[in-house]
């Protein structure tokens, strides 16, 4: 047995060194300083699996937690200053702040968020604000950036209005196509898009870092309904997270999908086929309904997107801005 001890020690030390070197490689690949975008969720407002869904699309995800996906959200982090901003505040807020803490730890107390930027007033995009109230975190004046109708909605309707009156959040106004400076490294420009605007406007965001620009556009009715060409938006950025809610028409049996309009991924594939290869490679679909087959492991729908030169966004992916 004694003769085995040096060998065991050597194996242990070698394994530890391999782990340490591997960890360093990952950190270097992600970068130590700079502005980063991290994807914290890729599902539609209801998440995946969806409440009360007993169909095949959600069956495996109910059994296997590794297949589950959070509601669509991204965060921007300035590693040099330690500042962090969320884009949309979802029902999965607790898990997503935890993901953010694990990827980019903060020494600040509470949420350690320097702001939350909202796209619109559909439940998956703002309902997580409840966690900032006195029943949970009891936050202190977290800046919430919102368009005029969105801001008025929060101020005028409970329980959100209580967050304002108790100074848990502070509403900062946004204007269409008017840029704001989050800090000296990051500029954000909201741009209004057509959507089911029952309670607020709907916007996407152009997020400009020191080196690259990202577009975050999780919700829009149809590309053809917009007075801008989505192709030009793609050409004007380095990565575009675009609405991929439904893969194709008829995805929800018994529902008139014209009442919940989104650009089907199949439509987007056809439309973007005219783009140059380098431009198509910027596109990453996001915001998947629980019925969308791209959520299923190894489904041909995902391969179809990749063959067309585009991608599916993944939770936890990080890009440099």
Question: Care to describe what's here?
Answer:
The chain has 321 residues and is of the alpha/beta class. The chain has one domain (32-320): Metallo-beta-lactamase, Chain A, CATH 3.60.15. It has 10 helices and 14 strands. The chain has a 7-stranded mixed sheet with strand order 6-5-4-3-2-1-14. A 7-stranded mixed sheet has the order 7-8-9-10-11-12-13. The protein is globular and about 45 Å long. The relative contact order is 0.14. Mean pLDDT is 92; it is low at 1-30. InterPro entries: Metallo-B-lactamas (IPR001279), RibonucZ/Hydroxyglut_hydro (IPR036866). This is Coenzyme PQQ synthesis protein B. Pfam families: Lactamase_B_2. Residues 84-256 form the Metallo-beta-lactamase domain.
Summarize the structure.
The protein is α/β, with parallel strands linked by helices. Helix content is 28%, strand content 21%. The protein is built from 10 helices and 14 strands.
Label this structure with key terms:
single chain; 321 residues; alpha/beta; Metallo-beta-lactamase, Chain A; seven-stranded mixed sheet; 14 strands; RibonucZ/Hydroxyglut_hydro
């Amino acid at each position: 047995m004694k003769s085995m001890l040096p060998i065991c020690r050597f194996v242990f030390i070698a394994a530890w060194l391999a782990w340490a070197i591997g960890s360093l490689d990952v950190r270097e690949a992600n970068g130590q300083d700079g502005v980063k975008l991290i994807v914290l969720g890729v599902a539609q407002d209801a998440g995946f699996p969806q409440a009360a869904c007993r169909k095949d699309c959600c069956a495996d995800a109910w059994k296997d937690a590794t297949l589950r996906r959070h509601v669509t959200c991204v965060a921007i982090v300035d590693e040099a200053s330690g500042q962090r901003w969320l884009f949309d505040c979802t029902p999965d807020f607790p898990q997503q702040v935890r993901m953010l803490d694990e990827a980019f730890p903060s020494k600040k107390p509470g949420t350690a968020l320097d702001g939350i930027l909202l796209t619109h007033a559909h439940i998956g995009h703002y309902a997580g604000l409840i966690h900032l109230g006195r029943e949970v975190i009891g936050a202190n004046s977290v800046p919430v950036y919102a368009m005029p109708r969105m801001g008025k909605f929060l101020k005028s309707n409970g329980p959100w209005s209580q967050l304002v009156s108790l100074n848990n959040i502070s509403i900062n106004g946004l204007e269409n196509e008017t840029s704001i400076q989050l800090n000296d490294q990051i500029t954000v420009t909201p741009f209004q898009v057509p959507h089911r605007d029952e309670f607020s406007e709907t916007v996407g965001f152009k997020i400009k870092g020191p080196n690259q620009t990202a577009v975050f556009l999780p919700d829009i009715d149809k590309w053809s309904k917009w007075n801008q060409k989505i192709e030009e938006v793609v050409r004007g950025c380095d990565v575009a997270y675009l609405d991929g809610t439904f893969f194709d028409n008829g995805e929800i049996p018994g529902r008139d999908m014209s009442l919940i309009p989104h650009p089907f991924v199949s439509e987007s594939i056809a439309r973007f086929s005219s783009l140059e290869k380098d431009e198509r490679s910027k596109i990453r679909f996001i915001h998947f309904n629980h019925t969308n087959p791209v959520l299923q492991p190894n489904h041909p729908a995902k391969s179809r997107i990749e063959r067309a030169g585009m991608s599916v966004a993944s939770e936890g992916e990080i890009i440099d801005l």
